[in-house]
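Annual report, structural modelling task.

Input specification for the calcium ion complex:
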Amino acid sequence: MIWEEIDTHAKEWVKEAGDRIRLSFEKTLNIESKSNANDLVTNIDKEIEQFFINKIRGVYPEHRIMGEEGFGDELNSLEGIVWLIDPIDGTMNFIHQQRNFAISIGVYENGIGQIGLIYDVAHDELYHAIRGKGAFINGKPIPLLKESTVKESIIALNATWVMENHRIDHHLLIPLVRDARGSRSYGTAALEMVYVATGRVDAYLSMRLSPWDFGAGAVIVEELGGVVTNLKGEKLNFLTQDSLLTANPGLHQEVLKNYLKIDQ
Ligand code: 2AM
Ligand code: CA
Ligand code: CA
Ligand code: CA
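The model returned the following structure:
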């Protein structure tokens, strides 16, 4: 009951936020960089996060909020109901392409994902799942994931992780990219998770993401029988940054064991 009510509010807010983002295409963006010159944020990222926080606080003052742009609460536990909000996932795409970005909202209770909403604004496609009630695209049920092997899979990952980098031994990823049927880089973790959920790609991996990047996607992928862990095969905790590997169960196991050399 409570989840249906929260879901109804969240969907309405996400659509309104999408309208605001579409209107912003006509205006000049104010763009700043964060941790490095290519880590970008705009006035719209900040405005949309504040929009959600005002809406949530208005209806659910007891809920806590973790948002990428820092307007939410400082959290050091996931007790109670916590909203994980990424107002624009794929900001670089938003700025350069006005597509390939999404709003991502996960609602967790005591660390367990209950609701995941990912809104592909440019396509007006809302992906959503309520734990135990299925996952949907614009209200239409999404079928369960099919199994696949590396040889017949498309794997989503950023090319930077296959170059020498300080987060992973790239020699592990070169054979994976070579053996896979294809590789893709979309630059938006939320949509890449949705693509796993809908079978458009078979796996997605990243070295460095935050709870607002994967909070909503985890609910949607798991609802369809997919597996979501870090690259060591461990559960995510949704309070801290982590790496990510998400895929159908057979492929997830094959990538962990045969490529990342993790024995479980
Ligand atoms: P963002 O657009 O919300 O920042 C890009 O490959 C994906 O990784 C996006 O989902 C992006 O989310 C995320 N990401 C996480 N940390 C990042 C960082 N420090 N710089 C750029 N993208 C980051
Ligand atoms: Ca960002
Ligand atoms: Ca993000
Ligand atoms: Ca973001």
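Residues 150-259 form a domain with the D-Maltodextrin-Binding Protein; domain 2 fold (CATH 3.40.190.80).
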